[in-house]
Amino acid sequence: SFLFKDWSVLALSRTPTFLHVNQTQHCKRLEGLVSSQVQLCRSNLELMHTIIQAAREVKKTCQKTFADMRWNCSSIENGPNYLPDLERGTRESAFVYALSAAAISHTIARACTTGDLRLCSCGPIPGDIPEPGYRWGGCGDNLHYGLVMGSKFSDAPMKMKKSGSHANKLMHLHNSEVGRQVLQNAMEMKCKCHGVSGSCSIRTCWRGLQDLKDIAMDLKTKYLSATKVVHRPMGTRKQLVPKDIDIRPVRENELVYLQSSPDFCSRNDKLGSVGTQDRQCNKTSNGSDSCDLMCCGRGYNPYTEKLVERCHCKYHWCCYVTCKKCERTVERYVCK
Prior knowledge:
The chain is α+β, with helices and mostly antiparallel strands. It contains nine helices and eleven strands. The chain has a three-stranded mixed beta sheet. It has a three-stranded mixed beta sheet with strand order 5-4-6. Strands 9-11-10 form a three-stranded antiparallel beta sheet. Helix 4 (45-65) packs across helix 5 (91-114) and helix 4 (45-65) crosses helix 8. Pfam families: wnt.
């Protein structure tokens, strides 16, 4: 079905570790690829390892980023039959598309730098002259190559004639572009010190990407302020326009969604909500992870957990540390 194809990036996160994509016939064995992605796989076999790695990162990063929210990316667990909240054009699917697009380009850009891809190398040396005491060197992340190859792969399902509704395609293409834009803004100057005994009289610098978890946090902010859109004729063709303020066009840097999400409080398979029963909550928090908000007013049960930690550590001259093990009991809370 189109919906499953549509999530090809996530489907790849379940590729068994023993499956090494080193022959063109292996491309057919990868779950959820559309024909143009299979072609891309055949002509860039070594790129597929990087893309599969990116898919696994998306899953992990999404779950970490939303660990304190009612929707905690649980939808990603259930592939290939992804839950309806990712199929209905909700703000959750907006986030996952944006993160997937960013992650694929991010992983490719970094793989160029580490030498894992033979088809590319370090990013270009910046044209601007750094200030005194700084010089360009090192190996910058190859963002350009990451963006070119990443968008080819990520956007392929939405560019197929048969696939899904036009509104959904426009939404996914827009949100994927937002993800890549956040990635571009995550390029920063990174430096290494040189000089007599670490005096740092000269620094060698390059342009590198922030970690994916930082990019995911930026996208989470955009998720929280996402704009609901409708698909309606504008001039000669149908476009997405903000539902409540259709006097302005959709902004290039905002995530957009077509359908409102459930509150994710209780289980509803039709809407793709797994509910928050048995989720851990924070009794002292006032945020989204508070027991009140997380448990949707149903209350919570306490339980205790024993933690074993290193303690009473002593430094011995020279040069080792000895520690004891201490046990402490902490109280935790789960939603009813």
